[in-house]
Amino acid sequence: MIDWKEFDEIWRFVVEYKPRLELAEIHKPPVNVFETEEKFVVQVALPGVEKQDIRVEYSDGVLRIFGVRRDQCSENERKFHVLEVSYGPFERKIFIGKEIDVEKIESRLKDGLLTIDVPKRVYKFREIEIERGE
To answer: Within 10 A of 65 (CB to CB), how many other CB atoms are there?
Structure first.
């Protein structure tokens, strides 16, 4: 079972104690979003991010993926020549809509790619018999 206490503390620190963070400082990982007949699929590139540092939520038609990428290097004094992998908080919000089956949303993390399957709600055709009114 995942203990979200540490994660929530990090996120609260980012939101409450760092109000001067520019929007650009919260990393937005690249995503692919596509649709099939049965579902929407969201793929998020999160190399180096552990499962316990990711949270996925769905509310009011929006899928929210957020978490933190931790610096794996313990050396504090480093002289970077190129720094393209950002560390710290990340967040993506994807508008999906409300015509989905919320209870059947599934996600998996493999080789740094988070894949979220969002099944569409299935509506079946039904002919309604008209009864004679009296």
So the answer is: 22
The pLDDT value recorded for residue 23 is 45
Instruction: Determine the CATH number of domain 5-70+85-119.
Output: 2.60.40.790
- Give this prediction's pTM: 0.72
Q: Which of 41, 86, 39 is nearest to 67 (CA)?
A: 86
Kindly give, in sequence order, each residue whose CB lies less than 8 Å from that of residue 5, ignoring residues fewer than 6 positions away. none
Take residue 100 and report the two structure tokens written for it: 């989905």
In angstroms, the Cα distances linking 57 to 3, 35, 81, 86, 87 are 16, 19, 36, 23, 21
3-state secondary structure of 21: coil
